Amino acid sequence: MKFSIAAITAALVASALSPAYCKPTPHMPPQEAMSAIAFLSGPNATVSGTVTFKQPDPSSATQIFANLTGLTEGKHGIHVHQFGDLSNGCASLGPHYNPFNHTHGGPEGEQRHAGDFGNIIANADGTATLNLTIDTIHLSGPFSILGRGIVLHSGEDDLGLGNSPLSNTTGNSGERSACGVIGYASITA
Question: Which residues are in the Superoxide dismutase copper/zinc binding domain (predicted)?
């Protein structure tokens, strides 16, 4: 009797792990690279650009690349915000995306909102690029940033280290200069 129970258990385990059982279904999509993009623009149409996101697989960190123009020279805070609602411009995107209820911080800080990217630095000609890899955001799963907003702020993000009352919530990074909604992109984007 012991042998037959062990044999049945082994057969069930083997069938559960067989390639036929592990094929993707509509409820279990294939584990592949994902890509997203946001087109940013400001209310006065001076600031514009793109932010792209790439995640090689669901367990990998997400790579973020930004190319922006029309900025004032210096540092500007950039963050993922809670909503993807542009019905009232950048104002309707809500607060920073913060699914774990942490205080504001920088991209390397232990305590930070999931979408705290720190600062992007604009040159004298108003152009800025960002290349960042971060493990607190994902393009799939329950904490996906797809459909959420991204905001470029007018001032420097103090990374939660300043003396302002806004330091722990927004990094005291000023007005919303430009924004967009993060959406699926082709994998080659």
Answer: 47-182
pLDDT in tens, the chain (189 residues): 454 554 444 444 444 443 443 344 455 455 678 999 999 998 877 899 999 999 998 889 999 999 999 999 999 999 999 999 999 999 999 999 999 898 887 777 788 878 888 899 999 999 999 999 998 889 998 889 999 999 999 999 888 888 888 888 888 899 999 999 999 998 655
| Active site members | 79, 81, 96, 104, 113, 116, 153, 176
The CATH number given to whatever domain includes residue 113 is 2.60.40.200
Residue 107 included in any domain: yes
